[in-house]
């Protein structure tokens, strides 16, 4: 069966002595889906609202220049946004200076402020403005041409910072599906990509080690129930709730997940028989369809007949259910 708790409860109630084996595919899928959620959370953490903040700042400055109205800035929390806007205000002050000599001194002071914040941005800023710089110094006529370039170039720097974060987030997200792939399914090229990814993002190593160790538990011909406590190493206080729930479920159901190891007691080699530990999805799909249609049926006997038609095999109802119990459970 899959990890449906209702089905498990029903099976234990009706067939108390049966051995339940949780489908290996569903156990792996539960962890993989939860890890993808966790990787998406980590990707958003890289952004941290930075990209949307850049977009807001750009809109606010354009609106201020056109309408003379300053928008709400109470949302600013990121240090880069605060510093960027503080420098933009210096550019606004410089925009009102009409004396070429005073403008030159103010411009040099502006570059000094940017350099003390981030020299790389100051270099990029001056490089962008280089084509518009007068060769013989600023003049009254040249100031009218140069001042608008200051603001548009500073917004271009904001776009560059936004793109840098977006590229970092995109690069981080690229490897998430390699992170959850089974080791035996890797091509040589994919192995190289994964090594490069883990080298660039060492924080992802614990996740890869955990999922690899989890996969290998199903490949070894061993008996008994292995511990899944090692999965707790990938949980943090702010981990995605889906990952926390998945790890908790897998750890609590470890005995049922690895019940297939008991098959050797009745002479079944589970490594030669995939169906011994993976349930048939096409059968589940047909049963689910029957269950949905059975809502309109009056008795379980009618549902049993419908199930036999779909599955092409006999279906038996447990004699443990009395007529009164059937009515309650229906």
Which value, in Å, is the CA radius of gyration? 32 Å
Q: Indicate the percent of residues in helices.
A: 55-70%
How many β-strand runs? 0
Biggest beta sheet summary: none
Low-confidence stretches: 321-330
Specify the structural class. Answer: mainly alpha
The helix/strand order is HHHHHHHHHHHHHHH
Shape assignment: elongated
How many domains would you count in the coordinates?
Answer: 3
What is the mean pLDDT?
87
How large is the share of residues in beta strands? under 5%
- Cα-to-Cα separation, first versus last residue: 21 Å
Helix count, per DSSP? 15
TL;DR?
This protein is 64% helix and 0% strand.
How would you describe the overall organization of this protein?
It is a single chain. The chain is mainly α and 330 residues long. It has three domains: 5-40 and 189-276, no CATH class; 50-174; 281-329, no CATH class. The protein has 15 helices and no strands. The protein has helices spanning 5-14, 24-47, 50-67, 79-95, 100-117, 119-129, 140-174, 176-179, 188-200, 205-217, 241-252, 254-257, 281-293, 300-311, 323-329. α2 (24-47) runs antiparallel to α11 and α6 (119-129) packs across α7 (140-174). The radius of gyration is 32 Å and the shape is elongated. The model is unreliable at 321-330 (pLDDT under 50).
Write the layout of secondary structure elements.
Blueprint: H1 5-14, H2 24-47, H3 50-67, H4 79-95, H5 100-117, H6 119-129, H7 140-174, H8 176-179, H9 188-200, H10 205-217, H11 241-252, H12 254-257, H13 281-293, H14 300-311, H15 323-329
Helix pairs in contact: 2-7, 2-10, 2-11, 3-7, 4-5, 4-7, 5-6, 6-7, 13-14
